[in-house]
Amino acid sequence: YGNAGLIPPKDHAPVHEDWMVYDDEGKRVGYATSFMYSPVLQRHIALARVRPDLAKVGSRVFLEFTVDHHYQKVAAHVARLPLFNPERKTAMRNGANGA
Question: Domains in the chain, please, with CATH?
Fold first, then answer.
């Protein structure tokens, strides 16, 4: 499995504890290790372990949630990690500051 950042639709992601990841055919291809709302990105995000072929940016997967005791799958797409990396918070490399 490879690391992948997942971004489900902005307003369609219930919060829960178990998050299995599936492909288009309904086969289990990994699991999300964390899932939360990002106030900075103003949407839900997840960190997941998925098959290497699905860890490519733009791949579509489905997160499984239990809502009112019923399983529901929500589509998500794989995004590049880190999900948020502002320039002002990134350390400069040697020589990058002109010194």
Answer: 2-83 (2.40.30.110)
